Amino acid sequence: MTSAAALPRPRAAAATASTSHVLPVLTVLGALGVVWYAAAAWLNAPQVIERVLSDRPGWGLAELLPLTWSMERPVLPAPHQIALDMWRSTVDWPLNSPRSLLFHTGVTAASTLVGFVMGTLLGLVLAVAIVHSRTLDRSLFPWIIASQTVPVLAIAPIVIVALGSMGLTGVFPKSVISMYLCFFPVTVAMVKGLRSPGVMELELMHTYAASAGHTFWKLRVPASLPFLFPSLRVGIAAALVGAIVAELPTGAQAGLGARLLTGSYYGNTVQIWSALVMAAILGLALTGLVAWAEAALTPGGKR
Amino acid sequence: MKPVEVNLRPVVEVAEMSVQFAGEPPVIALDRVSLDITEGEFISLIGPSGCGKTTLLRVIADLEQATSGTAMVNGMSSHDARLARAYGYVFQAPALFPWRTVLANVTLPLEVQGVPRDQARQTAREHLERVGLKGFEGRYPWQLSGGMQQRVSIARALGFEPKLLMMDEPFGALDEITRDRLNEQLLRLWERERRTVIFVTHSIPEAVFLSSRIVVMSPRPGRIVEVIESQLPADRTLDIRETPEFIEIAHRVRVALHDAHD
Questions:
Q1: Per-domain residue ranges of chain A
Q2: For B24, how many CA atoms within 13 A lie in the half-sphere containing its CB?
Q3: Within chain B, what is the greatest distance between any pair of CA atoms?
Q4: Closest by alpha carbon to B214, among B245, B244, B256?
Q5: Is the predicted ipTM greater than 0.85, yes or no?
């Protein structure tokens, strides 16, 4: 099995590449921390001076700095404050409590994933229709592009209210907004991907007297996969944005969007930031999921 | 010695065939071309670029439509012959699917035909062995050299066990050393199996070395100017290119090509 011996090499190379990436990533993280703490001190100092240090004459930098990094409602919370808030709001409460950050993350993740699946399916169906029908290509594409020029912030409340009046609440209306943002990159990429086989490949299938179905499944679909997965990564991130935006107008019952909204109602900046960081972590996890699916579904399929 | 014991049923009959491409003025790619090819022949179509040799091959393969005249394969119209999967076609480039292993590329036509999976794999393994690629079944196309890739595409064209193999400048993109080796391998394959081969080339030595008949074509409009019989011994190797017989045939081809241009 000489071929088997040749194959694992890219994986080993990837492993060394990832260890050599650790140092640069840590360097950036360290620099970011320094900048963040400095910014927090700078932005929070006026409040600290006004509220705490004004009746304490003769204060110095040694008193000011710790205070700017430990305010209850800072303009910009320090990283450790966000980390602590995230830790407390995930560990101190049971998963079904509305005070648990994980509960809200789960709600948003559910809307995102349902919306992502619906959006991907819609995107695929539209792409297949467009590739196989010249009429649909001409009539649908302008509408698809126009749909994306409408700001989601404007359309989300309309959809939520309209679906709510039909008795549809909870995950589904939010997923519709996710779907609305998610289908577009999938459609655009798949139209390109399904059309990517060259004349020679198509003629090859022609000489086999292959049916349209065979040409589709054995040539167009596999050829489109390298286009599909990057679009899914964009799509799932867009679906997350859609889910969070859709959580804003519902009166903020649950979800990371709701968490952002209540945080801003009560001036709880630490809570806003921990919801933001959680959304970023969720986004990374979801795109990671897509990347994992890509690796699992394309064995050796490298050019 | 007579190398080919032929059954004289024509495999390909091209009669008074013309092909015009729309344009201003229209391009006459082929002008009333007639050609019969009998079973077991190795035919080369040779001529300068633009002489319609590839177009002729493509019409026989039903990849291009004749404006007038007919092309028959195995007594059927070229369209029916394609639907009956009567031929294998090798393109200028290997056109392998990069997401499929070598073996899976060769099973592709068999899958389209509906051959059961195990049987398709068995057949594909045999075809790969015939082009000298045993042991490479699990590789991906990008792991092979250009010459090996083109051999995979030949193995793939053998898929339906066609009596007729059409090759459109299959070795044109390869270096001369690889090309020589593949020419020799192709000749051995032809000697063993006696499939009818139609081979498009613009290389005189390649045409003379491989063929039992060489069809010389001229451009604008595309016409057949001369058909040259070649009776070189069947078990010839590349060394034959130094012999007077070979040089004499090559000379005749060159003269025909030259006359066609005037």
A1: 101-297
A2: 0
A3: 56
A4: B256
A5: yes
Q: Name the DSSP class of A51.
A: I
Digit-coded pLDDT (tens) for A202-211: 999 999 988 8
Q: Which of B73, B108, B148, B198 to mutate to test the interface with A (most CBs of A within 10 A)?
A: B108
Q: How many CB atoms lie within 10 A of CB A26?
A: 10
Q: Does B136 touch chain A (CB under 8 A)?
A: yes
* Residue A219 at interface with chain B, using a CB cutoff of 8 Å: yes
Distance CA A181, CA A175 (A): 10
**Gap from B129 CA to chain A (nearest CA, Å):** 16
- SS3 state of residue B92: coil
Q: Which strands form B164-168's sheet, in the order they lie side by side? A: B87-90, B164-168, B196-201, B42-46, B213-218, B223-229
Tell the CATH topology of B1-86+165-173+195-262. Answer: Rossmann fold (3.40.50)
Report the alpha-carbon distance of residue A286 to residue A106 in Å, rounded: 12
CA atoms within 13 A on the CB side of A53: 18
Please judge whether A301 and B140 are an interchain contact, meaning their C-beta atoms are less than 8 angstroms apart: yes
Tokens 């060769």 belong to residue: B106
Which regions in chain A score pLDDT beneath 70? Answer: 1-19, 250-252, 299-303
Which CATH code of 3.30.530.20, 1.10.3720.10, 3.40.190.10, 1.10.287.950 fits the domain covering A101-297?
1.10.3720.10
What pLDDT shows up at residue A227? 92
Q: CA B110 to CA B122: how far, in whole Å?
A: 11
End-to-end CA distance of chain A: 22
pLDDT digits (tens, 9 = 90+) for A99-134: 788 888 888 899 999 999 999 999 999 999 999 888
d(CA B99, CA B105): 9
Any idea which residue has 């045993």 for tokens? B134
Q: How far apart are the CA of B136 and the nearest CA of chain A, in angstroms?
A: 7
Check if the beta carbon of residue A285 is closer than 8 Å to that of residue A277.
no
- The sheet carrying B76-77 orders its strands as B27-38, B10-21, B68-73, B76-77
Whats the size of chain A, residue-wise? 303
Classified as helix, coil or strand, B28 is strand
Residue B214 CA to residue B227 CA, distance in Å, equals 6
Closest CB from A1, A209, A302 relative to B82: A209
CB B147 within 8 A of CB B178: yes
Query: Please, which residues bridge with residue B36 across strands?
Result: B13
State which H helix or E strand residue B187 sits in.
Answer: helix B176-193
The answer on pLDDT for B34 being more than 80 is: yes
End-to-end CA distance of chain B: 36
- Mean pLDDT score of chain B: 87
Please state the pTM of the whole predicted model: 0.78
Q: Residue ranges per domain, chain B?
A: 1-86+165-173+195-262
Rounded distance, CA B43 to CA B27, Å?
Answer: 26
